[in-house]
Amino acid sequence: MNKAPKMNVLYKIAFILMFVCIALFAAAMVSMLLLEQRTLGVLIAVAGVVLCMVAIVLSLFSKPKKPKKPNENNSEYELNETES
How many helices (H) does the chain have, and how many strands (E)? Predict the structure, then answer.
């Protein structure tokens, strides 16, 4: 069975930032609706949107880790030795 490729560092950071964005969205809603401070709520929401965009860009640039295949490298090396 093949194992699923593991997440790399960029994807992990993007994943964490998405949860921070959700928390900022909730904080913006609380500050706007319950505390009635629209300026603070808008600033928190804008910070959440910026972090969300950063998370999207990071996840687009992340690539899954490729498993190493030592057998292929060894066989190519052995073929080159036998030909010369």
Answer: 3, 0
Residue 71 in 3-state DSSP?
A: helix
CB atoms within 10 A of CB 11: 19
Burial of 14 (0-12, 13-18, 19+ CB in 10 A): buried
Transcribe 15-44 into DSSP letters: HHHHHHHHHHHHHHHHHHHTS--HHHHHHH
Residue spans of the chain under pLDDT 50: none
- pTM over 0.70? The answer is no
Output the pLDDT for position 62: 81
